[in-house]
C-alpha cells in the first residue's frame, strides 16, 4: 500500500456516475445511467449482469482510461480526470480479451511488459520468474504464446497484469471461454491474490463465479444498479431457499401453468415462466414436485436446486442473465 493512504478509505468511490457515447449517426447512448459504488480495500467486488448492462463501461472508467460523463469518481483517493497516470501506475488490468504478444515467448511477454513500468532488466526478469511460478507456467517459460491452452493464456494475462505489484486488480470477464477445470484453477489464483491483500474488482455474467469470488457485488441491468450486497444476502433477500424447475414437452407449458400455480398455492411458492421451463420458488423444492404430481400435472423433466444469483437477477429485472 502507498504510504500515507488511509487503509479504511475506499479504493473506488462513485457517486452518480454516468457514461454516454455518441454513435456515428449522432444518437446518444447512455451506457451507465447514474450509479453509486464503493469498493473497500482488500475485498473482491463484482459487477454482475448480462452483456450490455454497463459493466465494461464502468470498468474502463475505474481503470482511468475512459472519462466519466457526469458524477464524481475517485480511485485510490485520486481524481482520474487529473491523476490518470498516477492511478494507472497502481492498478493491474486484465482485459476481457487476451492481448498477449504472439511473437514473444511466455517469459518475454512478462519481461517486456514489466519494462513499460520502468523496472530495470534485472528486476523485470526476477519479477517475471516470480509470476511464472505464481501462474504455474514455469515449465512453459520458453514456449510461444500460440502453444498455450486457453486457460494458460488467461493465467499469463493475469500474471502480466501483476508485474507492477498493483494495489487493485481489475478483471473484465476473467474466465469467459474457459472450460470448467481451467475456471477453477483461475479462481484459486484469484483467491490467493485476495488473501495477499490485493483488491479485486471484476465483471462477470457467470453466477457461480460471482458467488465463489465476490465478498460483495452489485447487480447491474441497463446501466443501473438493481441491488447490492453479499451474494448469500442477496439470495436470501430476493429469492427462496430452493427452486423447482419444471420442463414440459414443446407446446404444453402454457396449458400446464395454471395447474402448477393451483398445485403450489398452499406452499407460499412463486411461479416464473421462462421460454424453456417453469421455475417454482419455495423453501422446499421436493414438496413442490409432490404437490405438482398430486395435482395430476406431468412435466417431462424436473430438477430441484438451491437458489442462485441468476434467480435474484430474474426477480429484479424480469429476465435471465443470458438474455
From TrEMBL:
GO-annotated molecular function: ATP binding
Keyword hit for Nucleotide-binding: yes
Subcellular location, record wording: Cell membrane
InterPro entries: AAA+_ATPase, ABC_transporter-like_ATP-bd, ABC_transporter-like_CS, ABC_transporter_ATP-binding, P-loop_NTPase
Topology with respect to the bilayer: Peripheral membrane protein
Primary residence: membrane
Alphabetized SUPFAM superfamilies for the sequence: P-loop containing nucleoside triphosphate hydrolases
Pfam families named among the record's database cross-references: ABC_tran
Record keywords: Antibiotic resistance, ATP-binding, Nucleotide-binding, Transport
Coiled coil: none
Residue ranges of domain ABC transporter in the record: 12-247
Highest taxon in the source lineage: Bacteria
PANTHER family reported in the protein's UniProt record: ABC TRANSPORTER ATP-BINDING PROTEIN, ABC TRANSPORTER ATP-BINDING PROTEIN NATA
Family recorded in the similarity comment: Belongs to the ABC transporter superfamily.
The protein's name: ATP-binding cassette domain-containing protein
Organism: Nocardioides fonticola
Taxonomic placement: Bacteria, Bacillati, Actinomycetota, Actinomycetes, Propionibacteriales
Amino acid at each position: 500500500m502507498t504510504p500515507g493512504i488511509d487503509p479504511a478509505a475506499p479504493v473506488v468511490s462513485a457517486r452518480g456516475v454516468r457514461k454516454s457515447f455518441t454513435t456515428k449517426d449522432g444518437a446518444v447512448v447512455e451506457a451507465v445511467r447514474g450509479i453509486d459504488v464503493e469498493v473497500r480495500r482488500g475485498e473482491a467486488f463484482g459487477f454482475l449482469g448480462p452483456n450490455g448492462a454497463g459493466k465494461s463501461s464502468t470498468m474502463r472508467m475505474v481503470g482511468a482510461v475512459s472519462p466519466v460523463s457526469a458524477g464524481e469518481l475517485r480511485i485510490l483517493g485520486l481524481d482520474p480526470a487529473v491523476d490518470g497516470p498516477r492511478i494507472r501506475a497502481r492498478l493491474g488490468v486484465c482485459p476481457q480479451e487476451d492481448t498477449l504478444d504472439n511473437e514473444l515467448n511466455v517469459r518475454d511477454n512478462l519481461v517486456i511488459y514489466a519494462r513499460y513500468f520502468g523496472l530495470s532488466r534485472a528486476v523485470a526478469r526476477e519479477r517475471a520468474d516470480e509470476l511464472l511460478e505464481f501462474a504455474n507456467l514455469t515449465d512453459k517459460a520458453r514456449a510461444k504464446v500460440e502453444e498455450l491452452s486457453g486457460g494458460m493464456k488467461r493465467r499469463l494475462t493475469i500474471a502480466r497484469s501483476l508485474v507492477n505489484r498493483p494495489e487493485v486488480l481489475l478483471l473484465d470477464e476473467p474466465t469467459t471461454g474457459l472450460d470448467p477445470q481451467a475456471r477453477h484453477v483461475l479462481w484459486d489464483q484469484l483467491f490467493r491474490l485476495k488473501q495477499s491483500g490485493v483488491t479485486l474488482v471484476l465483471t462477470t455474467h457467470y453466477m457461480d463465479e460471482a458467488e465463489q469470488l465476490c465478498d460483495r457485488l452489485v447487480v447491474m441491468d441497463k446501466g443501473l444498479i438493481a441491488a447490492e450486497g453479499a451474494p448469500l444476502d442477496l439470495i436470501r433477500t430476493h429469492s427462496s431457499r430452493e427452486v423447482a424447475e419444471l420442463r414440459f414437452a414443446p407446446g404444453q407449458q402454457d396449458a400446464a401453468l395454471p395447474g402448477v400455480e393451483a398445485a403450489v398455492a398452499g406452499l407460499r411458492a412463486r411461479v416464473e415462466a421462462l421460454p424453456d421451463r417453469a421455475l417454482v420458488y419455495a423453501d422446499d423444492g421436493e414438496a413442490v414436485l409432490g404437490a405438482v404430481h398430486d395435482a395430476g400435472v406431468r412435466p417431462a423433466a424436473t430438477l430441484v436446486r438451491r437458489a442462485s444469483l441468476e434467480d435474484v437477477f430474474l426477480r429484479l429485472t424480469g429476465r435471465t442473465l443470458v438474455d
